[in-house]
Predict the structure of UDP-glucuronate decarboxylase.
Amino acid sequence: MMKQLHKSSPTHAPSPAHAPAPKAAKPARPGPRSWIGYLLREQRLLFVLLGALIASTFFLLRPYLSLSASSHLPDARPLFSFAARSGVPAGFRPPPRRVVVTGGAGFVGSHLVDRLLEQGDSVIVVDNFFTGRKENVAHHLRNPRFELLRHDVVEPILLEVDRIYHLACPASPVHYKYNPIKTIKTNVMGTLNMLGLAKRIGARFLLTSTSEVYGDPLEHPQKETYWGNVNPIGVRSCYDEGKRTAETLTMDYHRGGGVEVRIARIFNTYGPRMCLDDGRVVSNFVAQALRRQPMTVYGDGKQTRSFQYVSDLVAGLMALMESDHIGPFNLGNPGEFTMLELAQVVKETIDPMATIEFKPNTADDPHMRKPDITKAKQLLHWEPKVSLKEGLPLMVTDFRQRISDE
């Protein structure tokens, strides 16, 4: 009976209240015509075009607006003078770089540091103060972009920088003859250490070499293609041959290690901050004349030299570093003076009553020294601008103050 009732019970259909709701249809995505219609309604397209025009005008005028505003600031930095040569658009400063200057407390190094900081770079000076002086860079000690490290480049050092100016080495006969072994170690081991650093961190490296690599030249004036006439065992060879070896190392690191290198061959340079008694002819003459001592001329005084003011050299070093040219490049003033002619210029500048005394010439002293700077003029667009009669009084003012403080 129950079985029959079970079979005869009707099947219950779901009531409309419990029926599943139909799925809502997804709204159709707006097609291209819908977007165009949206932009055309209520002048929306006009406002979009007007906004694009305003933005474009702002970005086009931005360099000129920032330049005009910066000119009214008391600490505004000058524009980078080598922008056109280094691929930087005119009116823009290059991005600030981290730079190390070995020997940066010395005569040339300290002037280079001044210019690098002036253009906005961060500078680390590495110097052992053998010939450099803290006084040369003391005016930068409060600058947050300046750091001074007492370190001898003969020992390795690890820094993170973009540029390496390698100036560390005694450059005057009095200093490099004082400890010739130390001089050759600085030229060889110091250069090896700084080139190794450049390779490790991918920095560009500039070696300051010297006109002394030409020795007592048989070619006059000297071109960069001249290989020189150097005594390899003389009293000056620790410096002459040391710099020639440094150039060899620099080029080998370039060819074998892919290091970006530059080589500058520096001719006689003078200016403020030179050592008072370093044995170089300009500083000797100026110091002796200011102290009312006879100016010492070695030999017959007919040896020739060229003299460039330190600001000209610094401009050449910076132009070379930022150029695409490896080198070597002669950096010097092609003007030529005999020792007697130089003594006469010093007399006219300091004391017309100054006297001259002659002494025997030193060993291996070059008879002629004059750079051919055609390569630097053509490729770096560089040449000296300060004449001896313009630059010498600036050096005399500095020397007079320092001698009066002795």
